[in-house]
Amino acid sequence: MFKNLSLQQRLVLNISIIGLFLLAISLIYVTHLRGQMADQAVAERSEAFNLIFQERLQAKKDLALGLAMTLSSSPIYINALESDDRDLAHRRANHLRQRLFDELQAGTVNTHIHTADGRTWLRSWSRDFYDDDITFRPSVNRMLREQSPFTDATEVGRSGLTIRALAPIRVDGEYRGAFEIAMGFDGIRQGFEAEGRRYIFLLPADITDIAPGVARNTVIGDFLVANDSWFGSTALDFARQLDLDALMHHGFLLNEDWFASVYKVHDDQGRLIGVHIFGEDPETVLSSVEQMVHFSWLMIGLLVVLIIVMGLSVAWMVRQNIVRLIVANVERLGRHQNDLTLQLDTGKYQDELQQLFSAFNGYTATLRQVLQEVAQTTTDLSSATGQLVSQSQTSQKMAFEQTQEVNQVASASTQMAASATEVASQAASTQEAANQAQASTREGVGVVTSTVQAIDRLAREMSALKTTLGRLEEGSSNIGEVITTIENIAEQTNLLALNAAIEAARAGDHGRGFAVVADEVRQLASRTQRSTGEIQQMIQAVQQAANDVSTAIEAGAEQASRCAERAQEAGNSLEQIDSSVNQVSEWGVQIASAAHQQSQVAEEISANLARINNLVAEALDAMQNTQQVSKGLAERAESLNTLIGRFKI
Q1: Which CATH superfamily is domain 30-289 in?
Q2: What is the mean pLDDT of the chain?
Q3: What is the pTM of this model?
C-alpha cells in the first residue's frame, strides 16, 4: 500500500510518523521529568525544612550565648561567686528561667556555673549537687583552654543532648570561672507546632553508654526521645506514624498523613548522636508536585502543537518547492516520451532537485549522442557485413586450395620418415664398432698403467737403497775417524810406556815391577796400532764397494725413469685413441638420436598435417556459418536503425 502513495502523501505520512515518534519520546521524557520534578520538589521542601531548623537552632544558640555573656558579667552573679552565696545565685537563676519561659517562650533554660579549676559551683536544676569535677566534658576543657565565649549543640551529657553556651567570668581581668546556659529543644517544638507542623528530637538507642540518664525515656523504634518533658503526645504520635527506617535511608518521607524530613547530628568522630525530625501536612508538598505536573502537561501540549505546525509547514513547503516541480516535469516527460531533445525544468533553487534534473538533462544529452553514434555504427555495420560475406567466400576458396597442398606435404613427410629410419639403423652399427674399439684401447691403457706403476715402485726402492748406502758410507767415514783417534791414542800410550820404562830403569830395583807393566802396555799399544791399520783397510774396501753400488743404482734409476716416461707416453697415446673412439661413439649416438627424432618429427608433421586438414574442413564450415551470421547481423543492423528512428535525436 505504501508503494502506491504519491510523494506528497509519503512525505506527510513520514512527517506524521516522525511527529508521533517525537511525541512518544516527549511523553516518556515528560513522565520521567515529572517524577524527577516530584522528587526535586520533595527534596527542595526537605532542604527548606532543614534550613528553617538550622535558622531556629542558630537563634537558640545566639540567645543562649547572649544570656551567658550577659550573666557572666552580671555583678550579682560575680559577687555571689566571690562570696560563695549559692542561695542568691540559685534564686536569680530560677527567676531568669521563669521569665524566659513566660515572656520569650524559650522552653527549658538551665544555669550551670563553673569554678576556675573546672568544678561545679551551681546547678540551677539541682542546688545541692555541686563541687564535682566536670573536666571530663569537652566544652569545659575548651573553656579552660580558650577562656572565650562559644556555643555547642553536639556535646552529649549524662542527660542527653542540649544547646549549650559558655562565657568566662572575669574579675579585674582574671579568669574566675564560667557561666553556662543549657537550653532544651522544646522551644523549637513549640514554634513548629504553632505553625501547624511537627517536630521531635530522637536519640539512637545505643547512646545510653555515654548518656545513661536517657535510658528510661520513651522508646520509638530504634530511638529514644531526647527528653520526655520536651515532647508531649502530639509529637510522640507524629513520630509513631512514620517509617523511621525509610526516613533515615532517604532523608525524607511522604505518605498520606505527613511529609517528614530528618536532620542528622554527628559528633567529632562521625558517630550518630541524634536526629531532628520535622513534619507538615503532605498537601503542601503535593500541591507543589501538582503544579509541576500541570506545567509538564502544558509543555506536552505545546510540543504537540509545535509538531503539528512544523509538520504542516514542512508539507506546504515541500509541495510548493518540490512536489509541484516534480509533477510538472513528469507531465512534460509523458507528453514527449521519445523526444531526447527534451530539457526538464531545474527550478530556481540550487538544491538536490536542481542537481537531479540537471543530471537527467545531461543524461538525455549523452543518450542522444550515444544513439547518434549507434545509428552511424549500424550503418557502418551493414557495410562491413557485406564485405565480410565477400571475404568469407574468398577465404573458402583459398582453404580448399590449402587442403590439396597439405595432402602433398603429407606424402613427402612420409618418405622423409622412411629415410630417417634407415639412417638410424646405420648409425647404430657404427656405434657398436666404436664400442668394441673403445674396449680394446681401454685394456691397453690398463696394461701400460700397470707397467708405469711397477717402474715407479722400482725407482722408489732404488732411491731408498741409494739413501741406505749413503748412510753406510757416512758410517764408514765415522768409523775411520774413530780408528784414527785410536791410533793416536796408541802412539801416545807407546810413548808413555817408553817413558815409564826409562823412569823405571832409573829407579833401579824399585822400578822393576813398574818397568814390566810399562813393557806390557807398550806391547798392547803396538798390537792396537796393527789392528787399527787392518780395520782401516777393511773400511776403505767397504767404502769402495758402497761407492760402486751407488753408481750402479744411479744408472739403474735413470734407466727406469726413461722406461717410465716411454710407458707414460704410450699410455697417453692410448688414452687419446680411447677419447677419439668415444667421440666417434657419441657421434653415432647423436646421429641415431637425430635420425630417430627426425623420424618422430616426420610422423608428427604427418599427424599435424592431418589435423590441419581437419581444421581447414572446420574452417570451411565456420566460413559458411560466418556468411549466415553476417546475413543475420545485417538484418539486426536494419532492425536497430528502425528502432533508433523512433527517437527524436
Answers
A1: PAS domain (3.30.450.20)
A2: 78
A3: 0.45
